[in-house]
């Protein structure tokens, strides 16, 4: 019998670590593996593409360029806001993360990019935009997706409420 390998329509259980600029930014270690439906765009495309054909127990290092990960930095995602609009208790220092509501009431995440006497520049880019992503992945489980999962385009984990 051939060993099963990662194909579209399979649910993959993946242990992973993610390093960016030499720093560990995310890992499944100490928690459950990441479960996702291969071929459904549940995970970033640059990683999904590299998993095809991997067997259970197989490990791989995958380097994902920014454009195949969280996208390039969007220069339009930087916004200058007058300092007077910030509550006094917010420390106005570069790197501080804020939640901002837009006009429609949606919560957006922003980081302070820089501060001067008049204004604060906010960066609404994803924190990993423009970054090369270094994944180490290990396939720890494979199964065929259920019809329902295929229909919905994502994995139904334990305790998923059935409609």
Detailed description of the structure:
With 163 residues, the chain is mostly beta strands. It has two helices and nine strands, in the order βββαββββββα. It has two domains: 85 residues, Chitinase A, domain 3 (Roll); 49 residues, Beta Barrel (Thrombin, subunit H), CATH 2.40.10.330. The strands form two sheets. Strands 1, 2, 3, 4 and 9 form a five-stranded antiparallel beta sheet that branches. A hairpin with a 5-residue loop joins β6 and β7. The longest helix is centred in the first third of the chain and has 7 residues. It is elongated and about 70 Å long. The two termini are 37 Å apart. The C terminus is likely disordered.
Overview features:
single chain; 163 residues; mainly beta; Chitinase A, domain 3; Thrombin, subunit H; 2 domains; five-stranded antiparallel β-sheet; four-stranded antiparallel β-sheet; disordered C terminus
* Share in β-strands: 35-45%
Which class of secondary structure composition applies to the elements? mainly beta
Indicate the CATH architecture of the largest domain: Roll
Q: How many H/I helices?
A: 2
Describe the largest sheet. Answer: 5 strands, antiparallel
CATH C-level of the largest domain: Alpha Beta
Mean pLDDT: 92
Span of the ends, CA to CA:
37 Å
Helix content: under 10%
Report the principal-axis shape. Answer: elongated
CATH fold assignment of the largest domain: Chitinase A, domain 3
**Uncertain parts:** 159-163
What is the element string, with H for helices and E for strands? EEEHEEEEEEH
Number of strands: 9
Radius of gyration: 20 Å
Q: Structurally, how many domains make up the residues?
A: 2
């Amino acid at each position: 019998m051939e060993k099963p390998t990662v194909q579209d329509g399979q649910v993959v259980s993946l242990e992973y670590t993610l390093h960016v600029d030499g720093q560990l930014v995310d890992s499944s270690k100490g928690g459950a593996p990441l479960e996702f439906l291969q071929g459904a765009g549940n995970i970033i495309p640059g990683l999904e593409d590299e998993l095809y054909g991997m067997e259970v127990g197989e490990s791989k290092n995958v380097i994902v360029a920014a454009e195949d990960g969280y996208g390039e930095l969007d220069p339009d995602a930087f916004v200058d806001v007058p300092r007077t609009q910030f509550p006094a208790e917010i420390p106005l220092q570069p790197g501080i993360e804020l939640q901002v509501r837009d006009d429609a009431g949606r919560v957006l995440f922003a980081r302070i990019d820089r501060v001067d006497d008049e204004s604060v520049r906010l960066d609404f880019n994803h924190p990993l935009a423009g970054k090369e992503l270094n994944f180490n992945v290990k396939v720890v489980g494979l199964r065929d997706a259920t019809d329902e999962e295929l229909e919905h385009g994502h994995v139904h984990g334990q305790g998923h409420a059935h409609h």
